[in-house]
């Protein structure tokens, strides 16, 4: 008996390809196996005649897609670093924005404080992107405990130097996209004036990380700016980005283009609804906020 040298190849065919072969088999009277064998012989003959050049277009497309993905990743990293550097440099100036001489703006801040205080009351709070602790101060008396997390040591140094109720507030360096590295138990999450700085294609990444760290049933409060023309610097759009940016100048004269995305009521509802129970969306003239329970 001679050894059978034939190897059976198990090949997965996408549904669209399979349907096309079935149609071809019906029209020609050939079996699908015969069609596949004929196509294979044709491919081998073409390869023998022309070599690997027959795959040039396919390989070029794969290479191009890989390059585009890497370029997009590098741009995201550059935007992330630019924003971190900006807030590090801006640490001493940060809270000036909350002292804007604008009655409507100040009334909006009062509304935000009141809404947030009601959410954090009696809870153990994880505050993401806490900055210099401005919102931490507003929540400290009501909450059971707050852990403020920020990636910039400069702003945390300012936050830690403020007077805090004994045993109620702590701070640590942490990445908003890697909250699994933050220790502690929480039943409430706060993220104020951070959401607008998240690239649109990373919103789900942040929310899923945030929600995993808090757990099902935790309550969330997130607030940010409503777009007002002329406020907070020039709005910039770039051809290669779905995000918008604000061009801001610091006291030292340096200019920075920082991701700053704005959302409508409908957009906020669409973003948070898949993750939330009891979702409340408020959009005012200066600020918006959402309150919900993690589903």
TrEMBL record:
Keyword presence, Transferase: yes
Key word Transferase present: yes
SUPFAM superfamilies: Ribbon-helix-helix, S-adenosyl-L-methionine-dependent methyltransferases
Highest rank taxon of the organism: Bacteria
GO terms assigned for molecular function: methyltransferase activity
InterPro entries assigned: Arc_rbn_hlx_hlx (IPR013321), Methyltransf_25 (IPR041698), Ribbon_hlx_hlx (IPR010985), SAM-dependent_MTases_sf (IPR029063)
CDD domains per UniProt: AdoMet_MTases
UniProtKB keywords: Methyltransferase, Transferase
Sequence ranges assigned to domain Methyltransferase in this UniProt record: 125-215
GO biological process: methylation
Chain coiled-coil ranges: none
PANTHER family: TRANS-ACONITATE 2-METHYLTRANSFERASE-RELATED
Protein name: Methyltransferase domain-containing protein
Organism: Paenibacillus aestuarii
């Amino acid at each position: 008996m001679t050894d059978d040298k034939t190897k059976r190849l198990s090949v997965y065919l996408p549904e669209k390809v399979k349907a096309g072969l079935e149609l071809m088999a019906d029209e020609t009277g050939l079996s699908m196996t015969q069609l596949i064998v004929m196509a294979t012989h044709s491919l081998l003959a073409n390869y023998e005649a022309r070599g690997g050049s027959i795959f040039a277009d396919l390989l070029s497309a794969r290479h191009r897609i890989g390059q585009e993905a890497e370029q997009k990743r590098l741009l995201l990293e550059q935007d992330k670093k630019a924003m971190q550097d900006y807030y590090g440099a801006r640490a001493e100036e940060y809270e000036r924005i909350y002292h804007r001489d604008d009655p409507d703006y100040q009334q909006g801040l009062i509304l935000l404080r009141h809404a947030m205080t009601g959410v954090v009351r009696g809870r153990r709070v994880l505050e993401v992107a806490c900055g210099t602790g401005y919102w931490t101060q507003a929540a400290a008396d009501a909450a059971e405990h707050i852990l403020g997390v920020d990636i910039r040591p400069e702003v945390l140094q300012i936050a830690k130097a403020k007077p805090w109720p004994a045993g109620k507030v702590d701070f640590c360096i942490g990445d908003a996209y890697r909250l699994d590295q933050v220790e502690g138990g929480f039943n409430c999450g706060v993220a104020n004036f951070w959401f607008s700085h998240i690239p649109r294609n990373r919103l789900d990444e942040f929310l899923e990380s945030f929600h995993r760290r808090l757990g099902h049933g935790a309550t969330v409060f997130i607030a940010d700016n409503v777009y007002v023309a002329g406020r907070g610097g020039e709005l910039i759009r770039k051809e290669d980005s779905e995000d918008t940016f604000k061009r801001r100048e610091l006291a030292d004269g340096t200019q920075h283009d920082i991701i700053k995305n704005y959302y409508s009521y409908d957009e906020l509802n669409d973003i948070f609804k898949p993750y939330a129970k009891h979702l409340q969306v408020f959009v005012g003239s200066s600020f918006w906020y959402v309150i919900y329970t993690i589903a």
